[in-house]
Amino acid sequence: MNRKLQIFLLRFNSSEPGASRPASFLAPLHCTPAGRQEVMSHRWTELRTVATSVSNFPAFDGNPVDSPEKTFHDPTRRATFKLCSGNGRGLVRKAVLFRWKELFETLRFLTECWFGFAEKLLCGVLSDRSWFQSGPTSGTKTGPSEQPERCLQPGRLTSEHQHIAATMALSADPNYQKLEQWYRTNANSLKMRAMFDSDPERFGKFSTTLKTDDGDILLDYSKNLINQDVMTMLLALAKSRGVEEAREKMFTGEKINFTENRAVLHVALRNRSNTPILVDGKDVMPEVNRVLDKMKAFCQKVRSGEWKGFSGKSITDVVNIGIGGSDLGPLMVTEALKPYSAGGPNVWFVSNIDGTHMAKTLKQLDPETTLFIIASKTFTTQETITNAESARDWFLQTAGDKSAVAKHFVALSTNAAKVKDFGIDPANMFEFWDWVGGRYSLWSAIGLSIALHVGTSLGRGGVQILVWFKI
């Protein structure tokens, strides 16, 4: 049997790996107050062993089992394996099926059953970065007694890790539970018309207006099924989840995307004050401004008609080829803001690898007046490049000369070599960065189709929202 599994099953009451547990502890331990209290009463070393073992051994031959008895024949292990069991699908049986990379999910799952214990466990795990990054080894720090300044009492995680823990223990948060209970009891009584009829001031209470140089921005949330009690509980939940702390960390370039160990800096793309934003000690703003200025200049040329195709005609249509965040965000925004295009080129989006999508789009276009945007950071995304090659073949049937590709294709990428091989002038390559999440990437070069269609004024609205959010 896997040694880590042996430790998980047998080691709660001894600091020696593999030591047997008292017979009195071998009875099934259910998710009851008594069960949780028993778990919480064990020494920190043993609690740490639970997280160590749960998060480090692979699933049984890669396949979950419906019944522990089918895999474990030793009655001692079988009984222990049923810890916190319920209908044969116990906490331990589920937890052990996760691999090391699912540490966060495992801890979240533990928290749902053993809230007080797991929160304390989270503090220890998250405060020992070397343990967290590389896995457990002999001699690693074992608990709050060795790091009293970092590990607080259950219910009070350090602010440094509060936003991380928040993502793992939402359902165990008392504020969330209070909100959930309120919903179960009162949700059916929330009637929109009745709430407006009974409170003439409702709109004023649940909306705000941002005054900007470009006009007012109304944020109206009065048409949601909320009242003052719900708002109070939501704000309390946001505070307990560390939203304000995470916000500050985001603006300063800390790597709050802990699953990928990356900063989350779409805010830098709307940072018109040019306040330095550091990632690994380097200010990203000079590079951000360079790309945004390049985009603005390019869009002005296309929208004004200065940019000409191979036959000397101006661009009337733009086709964005990409998938995921390179497609959905720009598609949504251009569709929503179509009335504000103000003479910009028409925009089309192709993401489906099915050739029908591309063929149907191209049938409506003129190669002499069409510009293609190929959105792929690595320029190796199979679906995107396949569609891009189809578009290039269609274009060359009319243009003939491969050098004409440079006038009708631009790239959103960081792979200059691949872009050049495709036939695109690297000068017409617009970079973006891994600290821009796909769902926010429309503020980066990925939003080139938006800027071509409606202009660059959208960014000014983004700046105002950014300022409002920050304060």
UniProtKB/TrEMBL annotation:
Protein name from the UniProt record: Glucose-6-phosphate isomerase
User: What keywords are assigned to this protein?
Assistant: Gluconeogenesis, Glycolysis, Isomerase
- Family, per entry: Belongs to the GPI family.
The annotated pathway is:
Carbohydrate degradation; glycolysis; D-glyceraldehyde 3-phosphate and glycerone phosphate from D-glucose: step 2/4
Which E.C. number(s) belong to this protein? 5.3.1.9
Q: What is the protein's known function?
A: In the cytoplasm, catalyzes the conversion of glucose-6-phosphate to fructose-6-phosphate, the second step in glycolysis, and the reverse reaction during gluconeogenesis. Besides it's role as a glycolytic enzyme, also acts as a secreted cytokine: acts as an angiogenic factor (AMF) that stimulates endothelial cell motility. Acts as a neurotrophic factor, neuroleukin, for spinal and sensory neurons. It is secreted by lectin-stimulated T-cells and induces immunoglobulin secretion.
Pfam families named in the record: PGI
Q: One GO term of the cellular component aspect?
A: cytosol
The reaction(s) this protein catalyses? alpha-D-glucose 6-phosphate = beta-D-fructose 6-phosphate
PROSITE patterns xrefs: P_GLUCOSE_ISOMERASE_1, P_GLUCOSE_ISOMERASE_3
Q: Which molecular function term from Gene Ontology is one that the record holds?
A: monosaccharide binding
InterPro entries registered for this protein in UniProt? G6P_Isomerase, Phosphoglucose_isomerase_CS, SIS_dom_sf, SIS_PGI_1
Is Cell cycle one of the keywords? no
Give the GO biological process terms: gluconeogenesis; glucose 6-phosphate metabolic process; glycolytic process
Give the enzyme class. Answer: isomerase
